[in-house]
């Protein structure tokens, strides 16, 4: 089964079960300043779950464009290093708005995974929220799963929230054991391990609450269902490969990057990380720009800028000194342009935007990289805060980029010092921008500073003569 069939099979299955097939919404959530990017299929239905909006249908299914590169769900630094995380990915999902609940949601998911996709039952594991006896009984009694395969987990993994506020609820997930040759390879590796062996494929969220800004949970008008399954992950399993990057969604893109750089994939781990990061980030930048995000000093645009600059750094590692990302946009468009025509429609604009951003950062990237080595205190392997700030302020290195380089060389970056200098600069300029580093979430952005951007199409921008 290739990814096109996997996607279509999912949507057809739910259509047959009376779900309305709904198109993916934009990566920029509409009228929702609490969220950086669309990070799950439920985002476009948030108001329906909350009871503030009615639709003609009570059941829906979709293949949703998602980005997880900032805010509560942030996988930016995982990308390249795990087999399963992307910044941009597609989430397959089915939704019930006060219609069916746990029993049906579990039954559909199990039926699709085992009977339709044909995954081997003996390799599948289930997690549930630790207090959810009802879900336990449904998996065991209704679907016949052995109790030893149903694992109770805590809030971190099995209580899903869209963001700090909004719809949320206990969840139950399907994982597949890919065998002891995959992942960390420790004999004691279990479903609780964070490695790639027990791969989480599908999350079924039993939407029951709305979380308000003070953290209080209020019951939703009606219990609802929201599920999410990563297309890249399930495609990997159905294509019998262990990494999303070995699926038909990535192989052609990685091949094109290899051709550009005259390197081969799977010959050298460090080069492989670069190839995976570039392939992933290319998809993210193409889709984000197509959905109206432009590189900027703050908010969503700053996340896009970080993604482009990170990809450029990995390009530099592969030896290029020239703009190259914009030349590889065609590769992503060949891969997904038939499903998401907006990337084809905006192709020229996307390429120009990326090229401009590459040209702007190339010289400083080169100088900053050369300087990095000199700035590090070799005796203690520390980059002090003022120096990290210099890389940021003078050379345009997002702090995550500095952290990324430092991680490779086991160098400690003094984030507290960095923040202090950032704050001092802010005071000096009395700037209201917030691109500081929250020590708890070094990649996060202050959401309160996000400008609400409503994308009106590039034609509009062009008419107004304000492209950037
Ligand atoms: P993980 O624990 O692997 O980081 P998650 O628990 O954060 O995943 P959920 O929020 O439950 O993920 O999202 C639902 C599904 O979306 C996951 O089960 C997975 O299949 C897919 N998914 C989540 N994050 C990513 C990602 N960064 N890249 C690709 N697929 C993802
Ligand atoms: Mg995650
Ligand atoms: Mg998880
Ligand atoms: Mg999950």
TrEMBL record:
Domain of life: Bacteria
Presence of keyword Transferase: no
UniProt GO cellular component terms: cytosol
Record-level Gene Ontology MF annotations: alanine-tRNA ligase activity; aminoacyl-tRNA deacylase activity; ATP binding; tRNA binding; zinc ion binding
Catalytic reaction(s) noted: tRNA(Ala) + L-alanine + ATP = L-alanyl-tRNA(Ala) + AMP + diphosphate
First-level EC class: ligase
Keyword annotations from UniProtKB, A to Z: Aminoacyl-tRNA synthetase, ATP-binding, Cytoplasm, Ligase, Metal-binding, Nucleotide-binding, Protein biosynthesis, RNA-binding, tRNA-binding, Zinc
GO BP annotation list: alanyl-tRNA aminoacylation
Domain Alanyl-transfer RNA synthetases family profile: 1-468
Enzyme Commission number(s) from the entry: 6.1.1.7
Function: Catalyzes the attachment of alanine to tRNA(Ala) in a two-step reaction: alanine is first activated by ATP to form Ala-AMP and then transferred to the acceptor end of tRNA(Ala). Also edits incorrectly charged Ser-tRNA(Ala) and Gly-tRNA(Ala) via its editing domain.
Domain note: Consists of three domains; the N-terminal catalytic domain, the editing domain and the C-terminal C-Ala domain. The editing domain removes incorrectly charged amino acids, while the C-Ala domain, along with tRNA(Ala), serves as a bridge to cooperatively bring together the editing and aminoacylation centers thus stimulating deacylation of misacylated tRNAs.
The protein's name in its UniProt record: Alanine--tRNA ligase
Organism name: Desulfurella amilsii
Gene designation per UniProt: alaS
């Amino acid at each position: 089964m290739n990814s096109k069939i996997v996607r279509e099979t999912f949507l057809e299955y739910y259509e047959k079960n009376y779900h309305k097939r709904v198109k993916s919404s934009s990566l920029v959530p509409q009228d929702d300043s609490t969220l950086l990017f669309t990070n799950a299929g439920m985002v476009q239905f948030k108001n329906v779950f909350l009871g503030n909006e009615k639709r003609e249908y009570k059941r829906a299914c979709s293949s949703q464009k998602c980005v997880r590169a900032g805010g509560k769900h942030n996988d930016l630094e995982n990308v390249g290093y795990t087999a399963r995380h992307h910044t941009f990915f597609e989430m397959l999902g089915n939704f019930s708005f006060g219609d069916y609940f746990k029993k049906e949601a579990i039954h559909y998911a199990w039926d699709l995974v085992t009977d339709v996709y044909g995954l081997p039952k003996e390799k599948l594991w289930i997690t549930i929220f630790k207090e959810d006896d009802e879900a336990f009984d449904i998996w065991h009694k209704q679907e016949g799963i052995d109790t030893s395969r149903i694992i109770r987990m805590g809030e971190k993994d099995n209580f899903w929230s869209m963001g700090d506020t909004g719809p949320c609820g206990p969840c139950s997930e399907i994982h597949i054991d890919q065998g002891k040759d995959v992942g960390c390879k420790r004999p004691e590796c279990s479903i609780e391990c964070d490695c790639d062996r027990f791969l989480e494929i599908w999350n079924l969220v039993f939407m029951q609450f709305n979380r308000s800004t003070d953290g209080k949970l209020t019951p939703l008008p009606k219990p609802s269902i929201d599920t999410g399954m990563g297309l890249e992950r399930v495609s990997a399993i159905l294509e019998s490969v262990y990494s999303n990057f070995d699926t038909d969604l990535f192989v052609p893109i990685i091949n094109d990057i290899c051709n550009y750089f005259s390197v081969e994939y799977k010959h050298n781990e460090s080069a492989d990380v670069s190839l995976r990061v570039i392939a992933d980030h290319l998809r993210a930048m193409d889709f984000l720009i197509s959905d109206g995000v432009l590189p900027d000093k703050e908010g969503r645009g700053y996340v896009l800028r970080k993604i482009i600059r990170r990809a450029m750094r990995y390009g530099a590692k592969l030896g290029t000194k020239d703009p190259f990302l914009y030349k590889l946009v065609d590769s992503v468009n060949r891969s997904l342009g038939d499903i998401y025509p907006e990337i084809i429609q905006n192709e020229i604009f996307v390429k120009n935007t990326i090229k401009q951003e590459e040209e702007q950062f190339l010289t400083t990237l080169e100088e900053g990289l050369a300087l990095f080595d000199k700035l590090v205190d070799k005796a203690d392997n520390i980059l002090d805060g003022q120096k990290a700030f210099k890389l940021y302020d003078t050379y345009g290195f997002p702090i995550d980029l500095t952290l990324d380089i430092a991680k490779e060389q086991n160098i400690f970056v003094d984030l507290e010092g960095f923040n202090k200098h950032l704050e001092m600069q802010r005071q000096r300029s009395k700037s209201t921008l917030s691109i500081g580093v929250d020590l708890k979430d070094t990649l996060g952005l202050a959401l309160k500073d996000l400008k609400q951007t409503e994308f009106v199409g590039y034609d509009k921008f062009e008419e107004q003569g304000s492209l950037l």
